[in-house]
Protein 1
Amino acid sequence: MSANFTGVTFPNQKVTPANDAVIRRAIFDDGILTGCDLSYSGSTLTMTAGQLMICGRQIIHPSSQNWAVTEATSGYARLVLTIDVTRTSTKDTFDQVVDEIQYATDANGFADLTTADINATGTRYQVAVCVVSLGPGGITGIASKLDVTEGGGAGGNLKVIALAGVAVTVTNGSKVKQKVADAAGVAMFTGLETGAWTVTLPADVSPPTRTVDIDVDYVVVIAYFSATINITYPAGSTCTCSDGTTTLSAPDTSGTWACIVPNAGTWTVTSTSGTETDSKAVTITTDGQSTSVELSYALFLFKPNAPSDIIAGEWEMPANSAVTAEAELTVKSVNNFNSNRIISAHTKGQIDLTEYSTLQATCKASGGSDTKLEVYSGSSVVASTAIGTDLTTVTVDISALSGLHSIGFGGSHTAYLTITYTATEIKLMK
């Protein structure tokens, strides 16, 4: 018995679906084997019965089927098939192929397809059966569709050298072929008819397209530029990154996104939720650069255990006082005053309130009376709200204020007693 090899196409050896698909994928590109003709009427997309070859897996479409394309009246939609080998496949039940209609505002605005090698360790592989344009009356045309799959017969061969694991798509009119670059970064297309073929790679890791003329065998090398912007943004928001030419979108609303940009330049990162938005510019200069940016709909004057650079101006009190800022912001006077007086803890620097509407603090006060969260213009209080002895969230309406102001806590100090202000969070909200 050999410890180094096992057999597949040998007597008494097991041929798995993946084993069979490896051979088929080497021969056939993703595409249509028979039938599967596409047509449309109004908002209805129709595909006739037929068979497809996807990632070396033969799929039967047993009867004509309609899809309602009704969630948008402009832009584009596409029919995506997903092979998910973790789903059920038994003698009586087959659920490993899922169909879905997806929408985008432009033809290049769809999310990248998942193209893991399901004949190895991957579990999901997607292919776009077609892309259609939309108008107020429904579908206006078929922009692209899967071609009839071809083996390695007559025609030119195109070798794309890119990056391992990247999905490479080549198109010529309505003919569309897709392969995933192997471990060496090679995607090999065979049997391409003569003409101009456009090579497209994912927009977030490479130059978007390259056009080549196929009349003889052709090799194209894609030179990659890749830099990463690590973005933190408010969860539940949409997030984009744009250099004015290319716009990338976060794949979800989780609040974190490692955005890979394809070129140097100034990239503007924007987070949006309803009417709330925040943007910051990031400068990318070199291949392989990694930088971080945080977006927020609030300016934090204090956040627990946060770096000091988000504490706007930091905090101070008059002499004979102390300030600590860790899990809580605590401002504490000493008890050596021999008479009653007003004690105010405030930001060292002034803050421009023009773009903010609300001051909010989770805070409490002890040892004083008539204690308030306040906004100062010079030495004058221009807005305030009372602070209690229990830790609660209070707000101050600052929508009418603009320009530079100070933020603080104020209250009456009783002789020989200590007054303490405590906050777990203080922020200005837009």
Note: The CA atoms of residues 110 and 350 lie 45 Å apart.
Protein 2
Amino acid sequence: MKVVDISDLRSHTGEEVTIRGWLRRKRSSGKIQFLFLRDGSGFVQAIVERSSVSDSVFQNANNLKMESSVVVNGVVKVEERAPGGVELLVTDIEVVQIPEKDFPINKPDHSIDFLMDNRHLWLRTQRQTHILKIRHEIIKAVREFYNDRDFILVDTPIFTGSIGESAGNTFEIDYFDYGKAYLAQTGQLYLEAAAMALGKVYNLGPTFRAEKSKTRRHLIEFWMNEAEVAYYRHEDNIKLQEDLVSYIVHTTLEKAGDDLLAIGRDIDKLKKIETPFPRMTYDEAIKLLQKKGFTITWGDDIGADEETAVASEFDKPVVVEKYPKMMKAFYMQPDPERPEVVLCDDMLAPEGYGEIIGASERIYERELLIDRIKEYGLDVSSYDWYLELRDYGTVPHSGFGMGIERVVAWIAGLEHIREAIPFARTLYRIHP
């Protein structure tokens, strides 16, 4: 008998097939048992009728507990009211395992701490599987976007002797006889080197920030997509970001629309995400925030609350550009028309999800870059190879970093970023 995924049952209407999975829940009305099964691809209701199966099969169904693993044979029947539009009329059940203990995730009102302590089991619940599928489609869309535009994937190191943005907020480790090394905050510097070889490059991998933040937007370990392009200036960079985000949103709507609807996401809001995105300068953002009653002046950081206030003016991401030089990373190119600001931008998601992209045109003049490294109190010698990129065919170039979990949280409409990654690493959590 053919083994099929639950997600593919509709194409086997009228056939007897085999599915392999787990029991999510069940109910009984005496002579009929209703088994709600999952296999990772989807969910289906399986109906066990006493009159249609042997006593042993009916008893097997009766013995099942939540998260029992089973192999089920049955005939696929159309039922438009059911998940996926089909049901399974059971002919046989092979029990693989019945748990001896009750499954702990069995109530709608478990505390967050309890759920996170049991994250390895929480992943099995219907909502969490939908979120993981949304994440999968988002990451797939990221890769497709770059592949379709002839970008080259470059895997950047996790261990680094250089520090990406500043000396703070890094995880320091002992690296054999070398001395101190750090978990990477970013792969940007290495991507810049690759861009000088390949022109258009990107990465996708884990990054680490030792920030003692407890907000709903922050993780200690998270996945980031970064891109660098030789000869791209500030405007080229913003256009690439807009195209990427728009592509991700619409591809996810196409590929995971059912998953978004299943978790209650208002997809009409996502359908409005079209380029170009609204844009304002940092100066304009400060003036807007002052009008909204914020006590903020030029040179102050735009924090989470301020980001939300700015983004609330729009129904799609807004690009805030040209921040003060003193508050941004050392490698950002000053605006030639206004040297106190840099050619950078932050993209803020709507609906209160904050910054999803940080970007800039990079400094390509060696002496200016050295001056900026010194201003930040960093060791110039640690950046010897990075500076050397400016000695051989230096060119203007630009790039950005996009936090995958923040994008997932926004597109899925999650209340907290911890649900946007399979196993969240937050300030007070490293288990499981």
Note: DSSP finds twelve helices and 18 strands in the chain.
Protein 3
Amino acid sequence: MRYNPLPSRLFKKNRKRLFDKILNNSMAILNSNDLMPKNADQLMPFVQNSDLYYLSGIDQEETILVLVKKNNICQEFLFIRETSELIKIWEGEKISKEMAKIQSGIKEVAWSKDFNKKLNEIIPGIENIYLNSNDHPRAEVIVESRDERFKKMIQKQYPSHKFKKLSSVLYGLRSVKDPAEIKAIQKACDITNKGVHRVLSKLKPGVFEYEIEAEIIHEFLINKANGFAYEPIIASGENACVLHYNTNNAVCKDGDVVLMDFGAEYANYSSDLTRCFPVNGKFTKRQKEVYNSVLRVMNSAKKLLKPGVFLVDYEKNVGKLMEKELVDLGLISMKEIKSQKETPAYKKYYMHGTSHHLGLDVHDVSDPNKPLSSGMVLTCEPGIYIPEEGLGIRLENDILIGDDKNIDLMESIPIEASEIEQLLNI
């Protein structure tokens, strides 16, 4: 790993919080993600299951975590891939039992091959089994995960037990960040800031979008980031009106604005930023009008992210802010607003939501039935997209919600139009 390991006390604390929530005489079982095939004998880069990492700190394949609460006594068992001198020669160093104990804070560590034997020893007296699954509301599960395969096996093997979704408990815990998690997210934001300044020094007419992407990943890697937290969007001109554009192969032309949506991942924690820069270093009058409209919505929206607020109500209020800006820009009329039915008129130029949770996943998990609370980290990313003008503007920062005052984790990253122009023309 490139990053400095997070302290084991974080993972100990996370497990304790989970133990406090699950029923007595229960156990929770989590599996690592699979190594996914690419082509021929190649594999895709391994990405750990976020839930397992959150509770163990172990970033390696073939890992199993078992948490047992029996007679109000809590036990923790960690199973990791058995290593050998041969594996060391071909694949490099793997986590040893001692290393796993230090990183996770779990005393009982065994090889994965011993899991089934231990499971048979533990399960007598257990009434409920919490199983892990990807229950993110936007998840499109195409490939059966290790957790899903395990679910089928254990339900067949122990049909008399009660099975419960771990996500119903865990997602609420993950949404409120520990100070150590906030520190990791801030680090990811700081590395992202370095990427922004590198772009500012390289952007000019004739540069390809992928050349900008290359400059960003260079800066990320030399600063110990895992890499991009998600597929970057480098969208110039009319490409910026494609919300999830990531082809990144067009030329940045004189007179266009390039929309860049990217973020570094550090210690498995994500950042998420969007900025828009004039390719030639100067916004036109119209580009600046639209840019400042988005910035006003963003600045107001950030203040609406407060403890006790439900995101559904927040989005409605942001919609009202955007509505006014679009009217002032001459893009929609009051007549259209008054005659709108189910779909608000502003959705013609602002199609997506404003905020999502951020953490181990860029679209992080949360309990949708609970309001925002202090310690949550959310993005704030309004945008206006005008295909007929070949112009798309989106601005995005990551916001830590506080009891009395929010903290913008990207406050130091240039965002005012005048500052951006100045930096582009140094």
Note: The two ends are 37 Å apart (CA to CA).
Protein 4
Amino acid sequence: MIDIKLIRENKELVKENIKKKFQDEKLPLVDEIYELDNEYRDTKLKMDTMRAEKNKLSSEIGNLMREGKREEAEEIKAKVSTMGSEIDTLTSREEELSKIIKEKMMVIPNIVASDVPVGKDDSENVELKRFGEATVPAYEIPYHADILESIDGLDKEASGRTSGNGFYYLMGDAARLSSAMLAYARDFMVQKGFTYCIPPFMIRSDVVTGVMSFTEMDAMMYKIEGEDLYLIGTSEHSMIGKFKDQLIKKESLPICMTSYSPCFRKEVGAHGIEERGIYRVHQFEKQEMIVLCEPEDSNDWYERMWKFTVELFRSLNIPVRQLECCTGDLADLKYKSCDVEAWSPRQQKFFEVGSCSNLTDAQARRLGIRVKSDKGNYYLHTLNNTVLASTRALIALIENNYNEDGSITIPEPLRMYMLGQEKIEPKRK
């Protein structure tokens, strides 16, 4: 949520930002909020003025009674009573306006960074840099589901019986490898100075609407029937929510945390071959990182955070690239975002394995997270980034470490989590 001062002082800036995001249907909201805010401030001024006058008159009643001026005192009493009713009406309208304005403000997208490329959707995202050589071996790389099945590591048929499409059983060495990657990602971030956390896997609606837009919420979140609880789509949601309505001491910043959680999403399954695998699924596991920091430090943290993901994937022999998200691909709360994409030698293209975002003070405003300082209280900045998402990271790893004989080389950093095992041999070819 942006500061309403931007609408008060520079409506055109807010409108231009909406146009950059190709959300022209939201343009009328800016003028609506502007007018409602004017009414709100006028109402509040009248209410405050009237309340002050009422208090002044009320103090006079006692003096008049002591002076025996009962008639005059009764007149003022009647006036005070009328003013009280008017104040109640104004108070009610003030509360109503405040609620309406907040609801409309929640729909206005965050101001995007000036260097974010303008584009309608992810097809117009811009590649910035590659890390590692994207090579294609002389031998064929099978589809990832076939590789996993060859090591008895995937059972989609059974998950179809228990849960339906979009679920899976990982088994044996495949399951061990997935867990090893998550453990490595955890320890990797701890070594970077981040505090490890396992958060709640369900959050209330006021936290959901604090961390993401209504559109994202409807598209992603599973709601628990009959309760005000949602299954998290990423641990960033509950991690940022941890600080809801908190006043954080300036000296405690930056707050750097890395969290593990399962993730649940209403992913729309792809048709054809991709539906057979684990690329787009309803549940997976993830290691996440979040940072809460001073406003002036968020750009520096953004650069550091996405580079952590690059470093981790390169340590697993996976070539990656950084892709800057264009305006139309940015979620409403994001100021700036980039994807880290892994190389697929099978498909001979990159695919998304992580996303890093700077949300400036948009989440902090919605959740009431402020910094306490000698110069007054203010909203901090929040950032989040994927360290490793289990299913897509597993795909990237097995494709880039697949050998001609059907074995999978386990990258050196993972071997300590695999009891020293160096390869996974196929059980059938």
Note: Residues 4-105 form a domain with the Helix Hairpins fold (CATH 1.10.287.40).
